[in-house]
Amino acid sequence: MSGLSGKYIGPTKVTRLVLRGNKLYWAVSRNENSPDTITIDRQVFTIRFSATHVEHITENLTDPAHRIGFLEIVRLLKVSIILPALPNTQKRVALGQHRNKIYETYIYIERGRIDVVTSFACNKPPYQQRFKLYESYVK
Amino acid sequence: MSSDYYTDPIVYKEGFFKNPAEEQEYIAQIAEQTAQLKESLAKKAKAKTLHITLLKTVT
Question: What are the distances in angstroms from CA A49 to CA A73, B2, B5, B23?
């Protein structure tokens, strides 16, 4: 898994504030090492976090299962598999590996944007099996 | 699946799943898909091996 070896940078790097409608979004800082976009099926998606979700992620950073910061979530999403959408929604679950742990990330996908809701260590065997199958197939 | 498995409460709050039962249903679907995928990948691998064996026999 490349791209996951970077050291922890933390939430202070989330600096770009974006206002869309009534909602505030914190976008991950743009630089060459961590561009906040991912490409799925030749479509480019911008990853962003709403203010409430940023608060939630920051508050839970001390919890061992939630010990994953913003830039790490962005890196994680780049090497994650995205499971089929939940019925009648654009809500999805992404599975990826970070520091030898499989994480499940809950995201909304729409109109070229990915809104991250939360990410935490996965302890559900079916999800783990799915990710391991993908890994064995890729290797 | 046991209900001991952890899910962040915000997942239910944001409407990803209405309740743990719905989540378990989705997880069961994923498990079923994984089994199917595994089977089809195994079939493909077997076909590839057979193809290589046949090529070796011909040459």
Answer: 10, 31, 26, 23
